[in-house]
Amino acid sequence: MKQSQLFTKTSKTVSADIKIASHKFLIQAGFISESVAGRYYFLPLGMRVRDKVIKIIEEEMNKAGALKLITPVLHPLEFWKETARTESVGFELMTIKDRNGSGFVLGGTAEEMMVDLVRKYNISYKDLPFNIYQFSQKFRDEMRARGGLLRVREFLMKDAYSFHADEEDFKKEYQKMWDTYMNIFNRLGLETVVVESDNGYIGGDYCHEFVVKSEVGESKFFISEDGKYASHEDTAKFKKEDKNNTEEEKELREVEANRGKTMEDGVKFHNLPLWQQIKDVLFINEKGEYILAIIRGDLDVNETKLKNISGAIDLRMATDEEVRAIGSEPGFISPVGIDKKVKVIADESLRTIKNAYGGANKKNLDLMNVNIDRDFKTEIEGDIAMAKSEFESLDGSILKEDKGIEVGNIFQLGYHYSKKMNAKFVDNDGQEKFYYMGCYGIGVDRTVATIVEKYNDDKGILWPESVAPFKVHLISLGKNEEAENIYNDLIKSGVEVLYDDREVSAGEKFADSDLIGIPYRVVISKKSLKNGGAEIKKRNEKESRIVKIEDITKEIN
Amino acid sequence: MKQSQLFTKTSKTVSADIKIASHKFLIQAGFISESVAGRYYFLPLGMRVRDKVIKIIEEEMNKAGALKLITPVLHPLEFWKETARTESVGFELMTIKDRNGSGFVLGGTAEEMMVDLVRKYNISYKDLPFNIYQFSQKFRDEMRARGGLLRVREFLMKDAYSFHADEEDFKKEYQKMWDTYMNIFNRLGLETVVVESDNGYIGGDYCHEFVVKSEVGESKFFISEDGKYASHEDTAKFKKEDKNNTEEEKELREVEANRGKTMEDGVKFHNLPLWQQIKDVLFINEKGEYILAIIRGDLDVNETKLKNISGAIDLRMATDEEVRAIGSEPGFISPVGIDKKVKVIADESLRTIKNAYGGANKKNLDLMNVNIDRDFKTEIEGDIAMAKSEFESLDGSILKEDKGIEVGNIFQLGYHYSKKMNAKFVDNDGQEKFYYMGCYGIGVDRTVATIVEKYNDDKGILWPESVAPFKVHLISLGKNEEAENIYNDLIKSGVEVLYDDREVSAGEKFADSDLIGIPYRVVISKKSLKNGGAEIKKRNEKESRIVKIEDITKEIN
Questions:
Q1: Spelled out in words, what is the top-level CATH class assigned to the domain A470-556?
Q2: Does B4 touch chain A (CB under 8 A)?
Q3: Using one digit for the tens of pLDDT, what is the confidence trace for A286-296?
Q4: What is the complex's ipTM, to 2 decimals?
Q5: Chain B interface test: which of A2, A80, A96, A421 (most B C-beta within 10 Å)
Q6: Which CATH class name applies to B254-382?
Q7: Dmax over Cα atoms in chain A, in whole Å?
Q8: In this structure, which topology does domain A44-225+400-453 adopt according to CATH?
């Protein structure tokens, strides 16, 4: 198309608040425009890129046998009540009533809609498995939108849902989707790390994020040096080495401890190692119940793991008043003799130590030689610890922290939704059985931004050919018929070309071309014609070269 | 694709409430599924059709130089306040607040969003005109949804908005969009009538509907026998022939009239023609103001015209009590001596008669020889009459009533939005001027349904090739390798084929094939192979013919 006919224009500057390359360049070059915070227009250039991303995702999903459909944007609220997600999603959920008083959710994901659709059909084991997907606008009522398309309140998502007779069959699909995602991101020019992650409010037992490493990403993860293990910080497991757990258990005793409230105060006062101290963190869940998380002193509590193990939807730290209200004391909390209404959840690291020390639920009193089982009982014991760089993975490789942008995710859902929504098929023994499910998402808009994060320089974007808005940026300097002819020739041979026919300076044209980032730049000027043709240069090349007019199309294809 | 892998299935019956062919067949054949009333899933087969409709619209819009983009689904409520559409749209508008308390509209159309986008740019006359469009989900909080995809609460719409320096330039675009729509509907297999229509809450001075004639449509219109004039019933103009308007004006007098309240009662009592009687209809607008519509007795008041001429957003008939409250009497209302707070709006037909008769604002009293100007004044005089079949168009051709489905519309908006939203460009004299605008819509989902309304028989759908979900329905009767080979050959040669590989009876396969309505049916069976190949038949043909296996692809292309 002719650039004079693009109603959008590049801008020389953007707001100083904009720090991130993709945010800056997508706005500056006219790919997107912000409506209100976190809600964006995709402008003509941006639409071309987004449509190409969509096409690649669609082709690969279809190749994997998935079926495209689309659900209404408004999801009946009653379905979200069936799965209790009106509670678990929390403030991010947007709801609306129609004039008849019926309630609807503006969907963030569509598990309920897909399960409701499927449960209307009489489906036999012979019809299984199937994987149905859509591209549709999703809504998240984020408190803060940031980073352009990286964290928004409205976005296009490809969400797929697979239905299976059993776990074994599901696992094949999970692997197929994993491979499909690798193909998709590969075609999009994105190298991804697949990291184990938390399933949040989606439900199910396990899931993986596809993360593109980036300094501006919000997904923190650990990856082992041998590359065999990668996990989000919320879920990363690590080896908890034995400390003194072969020691004899000594007698429990209470001592005066005129110390401050921190862990370091305890170490100094008793002159004992940090790891031998018990760290006690008192939480209150969304129902107002007390949860005491205890862990070895040199480790930290991972709230996501704690939420999952305790079944809490929301957790907050107890205040000093709340600590005292259950007869304990800030800085001196102990599982020993704690109020019976407190649920004690212990990290498995407490099995690596003996004769621990810590508070005695009274001010300036500590307990020495505290031992699990003998001195206190736990309600739940498991992994509630936060990994750190340099810790060892379970199979002994060193963990390194990294971060990136989550562009896709795949979830095992198991029976989570099918049981809650009573969705069944008829198995070959004639019995009705619940579907075993999975779901698979890609954030389309965020993917567009991530491509820009990976492909930019100080002058603008460098689009990979697979998603570039045009393949060729044809620039005419001064009026000349040749440019018009080349434009028509390129179009005839099926090349997507943006033709800068504007009456602006050469400098402005070159700056805009670098900013927009089309892979090939073809310049026609009196000078180039005198030199025998057009100047061609790829966006990532420094120097242009002269190509004869008649060879341009060949050169580009 | 293989039919065994379609998770949806055809059904033998549908609910008895479903009367309309498109509603019935689209559900029965598995193209769509209702979520809740007026909100539909497009299933895999339906998506294929819808995607083809979208592609055709997109190709033609691009050919016309329009630029595709997309706005957020949630429109800031403040923009709709700028244009006062929060009031004029009425109950159909859905609004929502986010957690920060910001209000949003779930858009029914996107004039505000497009104008807000455009007014952010510095646009010069050199950049004009441009036409920007999107495909996006639209919301209308209809009281009643009906007829499957014909009247829904959520639907995909192609909406385009053009920006111009002046009316002259706009008119070229209006014609271009008119032609583009003709091309689009032509490619979709739909013959349309272009009828003048009311602009409703969109604003602007004139607009046209593209209507496909159909018994199940809700758009009633009049078309002149010579085909030169077509107009929606809300807007249709007609010739109001002179009656006795050359008569001398006689003296106004009040007579006792012990009669009933209807127009017929007046005719009988006075033994005078219906046309000589004045018809008085008292309305109350949304502000509670009285409006008295008066018209020649043989004509009816057109409420849409009355709304437009009076500037009312909403009108309702006054109750008997309300008629008495202004000192008049039901059945005896008269503009002569009516309460001053009543706004009198007269149809121009009152200029075609003299010495009319009618009520005297008192029970059982009539006025004889009532003459406009002499006996009463009007606040507005114009066309508020409803056309009827057999009336004459303004240029003398007979009007016939017809009805159909509105699949598209084009609107002159003029300065309606640009002035309200202060959207300006810089003209070549350096002055800032308001944009002159138009907008252009196509209801994608309704278009899909309309195609089915036009292309069906008692067995199912007959898709036009341009939008058929597949070109070929390959049916294998009994297991045979040939079918699999032909399937692979067809795919290789780029033919879209649905392969019925299910283990069900021949009868079921044929019935499903007729229901789904794919243009070519190719049957492979032992019998057909013995007869030398495959049986080929078009969906609209009665008899099949044998084609050699190696000639199938050629036969179809």
A1: alpha beta
A2: yes
A3: 999 999 999 99
A4: 0.91
A5: A96
A6: alpha beta
A7: 97
A8: BirA Bifunctional Protein; domain 2 (3.30.930)
